[in-house]
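Researcher: Good morning. I'm working through a list of sequences from a screen, and I'd like to move beyond sequence-only analysis. For each chain I'm collecting a predicted structure so we can compare shapes side by side. This is the next one on the list. No need for commentary yet; just the structure.
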Amino acid sequence: MVSTRLTLSREKPDTFRGDLLIYCLQQDKKGSAIVPQSLVSKELDRAVALKDFKADANDSLLVYSQNTRKTKEFTGRILFVGLGCTQDKDANQLSEMCRKVGGNIATKAKETKADSLYLSLPSISKMKEMDIAEYLVEGVLLGDYSFLKYKNEDKKKPPFKGIREITLSSAKSRKGLLKGLKKAQASAKAACAARDMANEPGNGWTPSSFASYATELADKYKMTCTILDKNQMKRLKMGGILGVNQGSAEPPKMVILQYHSRNKQAQTIMIVGKGLTFDSGGVSIKPSAGMQDMKYDMCGGAAALSAMAVIGEEKPDVNVVAIIPATDNMIGSSALKPGDIIRHYGGITSEIVNTDAEGRLILADALAYGIKKFSPTCVVDLATLTGAVILGLGHHRTGLLGNNQTLVDRVLAAGAKCGEPLWQLPLDKEYIEQIDSDVADIKNTGGRPAGTITAAAYLQKFVGDTPWTHLDIAGTAWNFTKKSYIPDGPSGTGVRTLVELVRNWEKFS
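Model: Good morning. Structure tokens for this chain:
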């Protein structure tokens, strides 16, 4: 992803001399395009008259304007994109509509290899101009994503390397628009960074990569970074992450990144992200078909660390601690075996029934250690934890469970606002009983029934009374619901939900 320059202009669109001039048009309740009187285009008028362009949410019309001696109108590509009918939409629907339109714009820019854009901001009732700008541009930047690191460039057909500059009309408050654009760029950049991490192969992104990236963020934003190595984990008796790592040649890392608010009375949010850099399943080996996608098993850790970049940039009035337990799950001669018993940090023992239920083992140590070390106000964890969540919710919603409804509601609201929808699942004692063990305190799987819930029940054993919510992103971290601003492969889901939660944090009691 190139670093896109965002600028504001009071100049008329006709003066633009870049690659693509963009107008966003709304649709009336009868399904016809609403064309402002100020917008003069013969090509648009003909398309509307023929009903080839109705300004529906997925409509777009690309025309080529030619200059004449008598006029000074823009010479080049003009893109008309549809917003659909905005009149009956609520705030979340409107913001998501803008993101999707932004994604459509990015698609057209890629098709035409247009790297300099002028976006004439539409006026949408019930939306502030700064919000329109934020969500449209966020959609463009998210939709502009590509991962070309490992592809040799074809000099005869060079790839489109991304949008270089976006200019926006600014008829009203420049200060408000700049604020919206800054938020859009920070969120999109972080989500794309998480996508980059996930797109790296297992031999390209290791536990040490998480540690290096966190160290860079700490240096850049004056945060505190602590990396626990294998010897330190042994002293702390972190049997979960050490057990998962037993079959690997790559040592584990427990990455801890702390943002300190200037407010001495600030509360503390702890974020824990699963950093399983490759999951073979261990001795309970996964089927070979599709195993290459198990490089994505670190998407929770990628989301947590990427969100910290925005937090470091924006400096919210709340402390944030991110913990990423990082290892891979391999099948070396010392690998954990079904039937083995491990002892987690804090002393809880666990019978290993299935070595492919490894994510909860590394998260449990991180949760228990982090809560004891930092005494957070609340905890949010993200993990590609279970295939069961895909059976239940498909690739459309993230599964959410927790022990505190106030926190659950806040996370649900954050996800809804940023277009990363979640669905709450129950966590009653009947499910918790499924992980009772005859030979240890608990076992690491409760069987196939309610697999997502019993995995969360395992984690709940390590949070005590601390308000906590768990996001199972196995169905949304990649192959997420097709959207114009979500690419095939890793979606970066979770990043913007965390950012939204922190940006709008109110004192938790």
